[in-house]
Amino acid sequence: MPQFTVLEGAEGGRTNPFATLVARAPFDVEAVQALAMAYEALPAEARRPLIEAIVTDAEAERVSAAPALVALLSVEPDAALATLIAERLAEADAADIRVGATSRSVVRGTVEEGVAFLVEPLYGDFVEVIELHWRDGMITDALHEPLMHAADAEERLGKLGCEDLAHGESHGLETLARVIWANRRDAGQLPEGLERFAHLFSAPTAVPRPGSAPSGG
Fold first, then answer.
1. Which residue, among 143, 214, 155, 203, has the nearest Cα to 179 in the 3D structure?
2. What distance in Å separates the CA atoms of residue 113 and residue 26, rounded to the nearest whole number?
3. In 3D, which of 166, 194, 183 has the Cα closest to residue 107?
4. What mean pLDDT comes out for the span 75-79?
5. Least confident of 4-13, 101-110, 146-155
């Protein structure tokens, strides 16, 4: 099981590392990931009491248990324990897991060369992000962040200097769709994580190969 130390400066001088993680789960990606890792590493018989302990810790910390429970649910393979987590979620204050972020499709460039930054809301202020770079029509870099705070995503987006585009209505999305489907045709697969964003795209009726001239009408 992963070992944790209490975060310095934790409010109230907490000595229970799980209580610290539970308190930080609504806004701290590392806390969410640490909870999930620690929970996943436990045998099934130890996971059940930990679910209840997290609910108790949340009450003691006067925070919602919902964000921590969502982290546990994301890695729970056992149907009975997943049901228990869902029951505790239903009892918890759900304010911290209501979606606070919005979907974003941000594209810069052409079919030949460009960059895209796609954001899908998960829960609370957490989002899933994929960043794509392509050159000569082929994807050269794909960064998938399955969990990122929306503020960190905005900071990353600002560094890219991309134009913000509306879902399904922009020339940028059409450009990105052509790049993605051309890569799928030539490479036989999509970059890891991109399948979560596939609903943004439909396959173009004809995808020209990079550098080829468009066909005449």
1. 203
2. 38
3. 166
4. 91
5. 4-13
For the CA atoms of 197, 202, 208, 210, the dihedral, rounded to the nearest 10 degrees, stands at: -10
User: What is the average per-residue pLDDT within 13-33?
Assistant: 80
Determine the Cα angle at 119 with ends 174 and 78, to 5°. Answer: 120
**Considering only CA atoms, which of 130, 121, 149 is closest in space to residue 32?**
149
pTM: 0.65
3-state secondary structure the chain: CCCCCCCCCCHHHCCCHHHHHHHHCCCCHHHHHHHHHHHHCCCHHHHHHHHHHHHHHHHHHCCCCHHHHHHHHCCCCCHHHHHHHHHHHHHCCHHHHCCCCCCEEEEEECCCEEEEEEEEEEECCEEEEEEEEEECCEEEEEEEEEEEEHHHHHHHHHHHCCEEECCCCCHHHHHHHHHHHHHHHHHCCCCCCHHHHHHHCCCCCCCCCCCCCCCCC
Distance of CA 47 to the CA centre of its chain: 24
CA 169 to chain CA mean position, Å: 23
- Please classify residue 69 by burial: count the beta carbons closer than 10 Å to its beta carbon, then call 0-12 exposed, 13-18 middle and 19+ buried: buried
157: β partners: none
Judged against a pLDDT cut of 90, whether residue 170 lies above it is answered with: no
Please tell me the number of Cα atoms within 13 Å of 73 on its side-chain side: 16
* Number of Cβ within a 10 Å radius of residue 178: 20
d(CA 166, CA 170): 6
